[in-house]
Design brief:
Layout lengths: L10 H15 L10 H15 L1 H11 L6 E2 L1 H11 L8 H8 L8 E2 H6 L9
Antiparallel strand pairs: 1-2
Helix pairs in contact: 3-4
Length: about 120
């Protein structure tokens, strides 16, 4: 597998979490000092932002009971279909860093998509 979890061990956990916290708190990181991992997180966020309409359409189709939630497996399948079309990409593992899962392991997909916005629109 190209996306071996071993590559993502150790400080990667902390960096993923801190990169997400930095984004959420509005602090910008100097482009020159960005690590490859922080740049990867930013790129992934941009890719998710661009895929929002397709993700919403797909999750709406999956959510036949209109609960506003999808299972982790459904969430990951949609991310593979719309964002990174690679069966080996570890979406299930990354999910805990980029979304909030309910106690039953489901994802409120509208809330998830709402986190990916264009900050230029607020100016």
């Amino acid at each position: 597998s190209r996306w071996v979890e071993a590559r993502l061990h150790g400080s990667m956990l902390e960096k993923l979490a801190s990169a997400e916290q930095e984004h959420e708190s509005g602090h910008e990181v100097e482009a020159a000092s960005e690590s490859a991992r922080v740049r990867a997180i930013r790129k992934l966020r941009a890719m998710i932002y661009c895929a929002r309409p397709a993700l919403l359409t797909l999750w709406n189709r999956m959510d036949e009971a209109c609960t506003g939630t999808v299972s982790l497996a459904e969430w990951a399948n949609a991310m593979r279909a719309c964002v990174v079309p690679d069966e080996d990409f570890p979406w299930e593992w990354i999910a805990r860093y980029i979304t909030s899962l309910e106690e039953d392991g489901s994802c409120m997909y509208a809330t998830f998509l709402g986190r990916f916005e264009n900050t230029l629109l607020r100016r």
